[in-house]
Structure to design on (244 residues):
């Protein structure tokens, strides 16, 4: 675990490097834009569904205001789930830029031999990441609702699920660029790309702790803006340090 702590420290220190700082600011801007768009669309969708369900002024006076309030509350709950999905999808899109910035400074030899991903490949990786995160969190949602009475059970469940998910995602966004010399795997999923190596560079425990740190930061206001880029930078350090 010493390599993990060192990698997190190096990743945090690099947040203030010009190249990484520019990526951080871009990713925050895009994440907020997507988040606002999803929030507005979700509010209108929920309002429409409630109206279609019969909650309108024909039912009783003031139903419209109640519908708006309910939609707002439901949208906030949904956005708590969606935030980490949007954030990780955006950083998956910018993952190559983060990895390149870290490798250019600390691992120049790896940077020279890495495979560059096209815009289409980065977009597919981002959408695939969002899809996996959405599916995993939706599967966990019914169990999280049951655990609401415990106070901390819901948070602990989501933290566990996302720690496992993010640990694998963060490893793969680095490993995909170095996993094999066969360029045909550039279009494959991270799991398919892993076939190009005999074993994953990070152990399950390291992936889990790395993913857990990022997942916990995603739940903290303001820190959640930093978490995806810090995770990508730290994962780059960790994968290269463990691959040596």
């Amino acid at each position: 675990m010493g390599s993990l702590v060192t990698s997190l420290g190096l990743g945090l220190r690099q947040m203030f490097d010009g190249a990484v700082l520019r990526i951080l600011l871009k990713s925050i801007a895009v994440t907020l834009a997507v988040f606002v768009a999803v929030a507005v669309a979700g509010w209108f969708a929920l309002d429409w569904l409630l109206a279609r369900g019969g909650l309108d002024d024909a039912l009783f006076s003031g139903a419209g205001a109640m519908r708006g309030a309910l939609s707002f509350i439901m949208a906030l709950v949904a956005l708590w789930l969606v935030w980490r999905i949007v954030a990780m999808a955006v950083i998956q899109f910018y993952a190559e830029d983060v990895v390149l910035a870290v490798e250019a400074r600390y691992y120049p030899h790896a940077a020279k031999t890495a495979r560059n991903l096209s815009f289409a490949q980065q977009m597919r990786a981002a959408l695939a990441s969002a899809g996996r995160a959405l599916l995993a969190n939706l599967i966990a949602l019914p169990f999280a609702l049951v655990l609401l009475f415990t106070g901390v059970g819901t948070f602990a469940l989501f933290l566990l699920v996302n720690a496992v998910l993010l640990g694998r995602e963060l490893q793969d966004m680095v490993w995909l660029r170095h996993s094999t010399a066969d360029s045909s795997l550039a279009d494959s999923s991270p799991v398919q790309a892993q076939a190009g190596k005999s074993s994953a560079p990070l152990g399950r425990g390291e992936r889990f702790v790395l993913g857990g740190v990022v997942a916990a930061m995603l739940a903290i206001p303001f820190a959640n803006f930093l978490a995806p880029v810090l995770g990508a930078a730290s994962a780059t350090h960790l994968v290269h340090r463990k691959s040596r």
About this structure: DSSP finds ten helices and no strands in the chain. Confidence is low (pLDDT under 50) at residues 181-198. The longest helix spans residues 18-52.
